[in-house]
Every structure is written in C-alpha cells, then in structure tokens.
Amino acid sequence: MDYLVQYSSLTRSLPPLSLLVLLSVTTTITATATIPAETTTTATFNVTALTFAESYSTLFSEFNIQRSPDDKTVRLLLNRFSGSGIISSDYFNYGFFSASIKMPSEHTAGIVVAFYTSNVDTFERNHDELDIEFLGNTNGKPWRFQTNMYGNGSVSRGREERYRMWFDPSKDSHRYSILWNPKHIIFYVDNVPIREVIHNPFMRGDYPSKPMSIYATIWDASSWATNGGREKVNYQFEPFVTEFTDLVLEGCIVDPNEQILSTNCTDSIEALIAKDYSSISSQGYKSMKWFREKYMYYSYCYDNVRYPVPPPECVIVPSEREMFKTTGRLREKFRYTGSHRHHRGRSSRRRSNRSVASG
Question: Which E.C. number(s) belong to this protein (predicted)?
C-alpha cells in the first residue's frame, strides 16, 4: 500500500521494551454467513473484543474519525478533504486480528477500505504486509475485495487474489480476520476461511516474519480502484463512512526494534497455534472450496504471464486451474454472472507492477 509511506510519520511511538503479553481469550464472537448448508462451517472463535482505547490510536485525519460513546465502535470517514485511518497501539509477533466492518453504501466508485497488517514504518525497505482491501464500485454494482501478501519488501512479487462476495457488505457488519503464525496464514470472512497460505521453506524471506502493526483505513483510490481508474470518487455524496466494531488483536506484543525477539513469545506463539482459528477443519476446507470456486475471479497462482513458474507456496488445484486463463483471470464460461444484487461487475486495476488482475 503506497499510502502507508505517506502517513508513516504520523504513527505512534513504539511500545516499551518490556511489554510482552498475550492478550487473553475470554468471550465468543460469532458471525454468520448465508452459504449453502452443505458447506457451512460451524466454528466459532473465542476472542476478546477490545475498546478503541485498548487497541488502536489515530493514524491520520483524526477529524474524520468518530468513536462511539462506549468506545467499542469507530467510524472512519472519507470526504473531499481527506480519508482517515487508525493503527494498533502495539506491534505483534504473529497473531489473530479481526474486526466487524460495515462498508459505505451507494456511490462507492474509487473508494478503498482496507484492513491489514504491515511494518513499513519500521522496515521501510524490507517490510511485510498482509492485506484485505475492499474496492468500491459504480452505483448498483457490488463491492469487490482482494487479499494480498508481501514479505521482506517483495512488492514486485505480490500474492494477490480477487473475489466477489455472497452478501452485500454495506447492509450489515461482517467479520473479517487475518490469522498469521509461523506455519500458515488464513484469511477469513465471518467464519469462512477463504484463503490459506502455507509457509513453504522455499519462500525464504517472502513469508512475513517480522513484527507488524494492524491498520484500518478508508481512502480515495480514484486512480485505479474502479474500472481501471475511469470511475472516480463522487464527493457530491460525501461523507463516505465505514464502521469498525468487535476489535480483536491477539498475539505477542513486542518492540520491533529488538534485534532478537524475546523468548517470552515462544509460549505465546504455541498458544496461538493451538487456538481454534489457527486451523481449518475438514468442513472449513469444504467451505473454502465452495467460496473460491464460486467467487474468486483472479489468482496469481494461475497467472503464468506474471509467474511462468508458480511461486513455491502455490498449491495448484485442478478445479481452480480449469477456471482461469494463463493470465489468472476467469475463462468466459466461468464469468461471474451475479451477486447479492444480481449485477455483473467488471473492473480492472493496474497499480505499478504489484497487480495485474481485472474482473
């Protein structure tokens, strides 16, 4: 995310060297998703929802950030003056990061809402990053979203996938989560795992391994986000508001400047790996297969133009391989023909050499 560099000077001071804790797990938050009964995963995650003051601070444009009276919900606004963003108050050495998010509704062309992890403010030249980015669309067409991964500054080797949703994310809040541990990375929508990246030793530094902060932002991406930048943000309909609640940050809190991470994190990481959200059940894999075959419309693993040899973490699934052309885009017979609004949405994006996907 190029905008990270622009705002990195606004981030908070680093946590004390001695602060090393694993956030406790005390409550259950359950999000539901309307998917076929045969693919429904029944897992619920036992997690603690934090207040804004316990978890985040302002990244930029405090005047466009609204906190609820109980401090459990934060609204991020985009208007003609600025977008807005928040950043976790701590860095984490692996963890589970989650929020229930409601998207802006209507006239969302050119808007990007992002929930992601990064350490670019500390490791500018070799940063790690895990992204969930939500892309607005022309009025009447559905939101789309993408996941991405960068490791050790590998911005030229982004691992991007793009999807559509089986629901309207502007009608209700839905939970979006990132699980990151030494073994694998899992992206969740509600309780449905939509993508897993297994740590392959041949990835070397491309697997994110340095402490990261968690960010949430809304911003103007008129130059690329909708129809290749042909559709811009229409500020006649400002402000555009996205709402974050059920804020979850679980992991070992560290000082990223420590040359050797404290061994106090060893037990915390083992505890993290043992959590229910750190593994996918057989039913969860069925749900993931259902989602990917029905709603994924670009995958770098099948983009032989960018990667004649698929990156080492790619697991080529025959049923997915059949869906895509050599560009990683859908073949005509697999073209997406509907969504929660039963519209056909097509867009393209070209953002330097980090993305070549189009829908």
Answer: 2.4.1.207
